[in-house]
Write a structure and sequence with these properties.
heterodimer, A: mainly beta, globular, B: about 110 residues, mainly beta, six-stranded mixed β-sheet
Chain lengths: ~110, ~110
């Protein structure tokens, strides 16, 4: 997890509230990614960024938005949280679509 | 098949023995593969990678074997230690595509 931090590490929220998760890196990697991890599924890509202000959707992007205003920060926002978004969220960094290094994760519970 | 969480396939090995964890991948066009280790409550940790032009790659106590004919990847851990207990999963990259992650196998090391 060196060089990648996520905040908060744990969060409990209520359905319908907005939630923002933050990923911060000190490695100066161009690419940053947000994944979710759920039982029965491998890591699934939500959104990714290939540079400041350059982002794109992954396979499970509905209900999520992202922003990257600085190289080191990548924010994931749940505009109106739903129970189906209860999950563990991982940020990752990398140089492209090969080796990716993951943060410690954020455990989100939506009640 | 593999699955994460309560129904995760488990490999139980005696401390000091060698472990072999298997992964079947789906896309014959995949040209890059990674093995990750994930300890409870932590983010996935990169172990070793291999490109499709190779059959074998060795690291410290780990070896990855790639059989493209049957689309099979394996991770061998020599002299398994208690600290190796974790969930291990593979990831594949198709040319020009994103990483696709498997759901994992739990390795339990018996003392």
């Amino acid at each position: 997890d060196a060089g990648i931090t996520q905040s908060p590490r744990h969060k409990v929220t209520e359905t319908g509230t907005p939630v923002t998760l933050r990923c911060h890196q000190t490695e100066n990697h161009r690419y940053m990614y947000w994944y979710r991890q759920d039982p029965g599924h491998g890591l699934r890509l939500i959104h990714y960024s290939y540079g400041v202000k350059d982002t794109d959707k992954g396979e499970v992007s509905d209900g999520y938005s992202v922003s990257r205003s600085k190289t080191e920060d990548f924010l994931l926002t749940l505009e109106s949280a739903t129970s189906s978004q209860t999950s563990v969220y991982f940020c990752a960094i990398g140089g492209g679509w090969e080796t990716q290094y993951f943060g410690p994760g954020t455990r989100l519970l939506v009640l | 098949g593999e699955s994460v969480g309560l129904h995760l396939p488990t490999l139980s090995v005696q401390e000091g023995d060698n472990s072999i964890i298997n992964c079947a991948y789906s896309n014959s066009a995949s040209d890059y593969f990674i093995w990750y280790k994930q300890e409870s409550g932590k983010g996935p940790q990169f172990i070793i990678d291999i490109r499709s032009n190779m059959d074998k790659r060795q690291g410290q106590r780990v070896t990855v074997l790639l059989n493209k004919t049957v689309k099979h990847l394996s991770l061998q851990i020599a002299a398994t230690q208690p600290g190796d207990s974790a969930v291990y999963f593979c990831a594949e990259k198709s040319s020009g595509d994103k990483l696709t992650f498997g759901t994992g196998t739990r390795l339990a090391v018996r003392p």
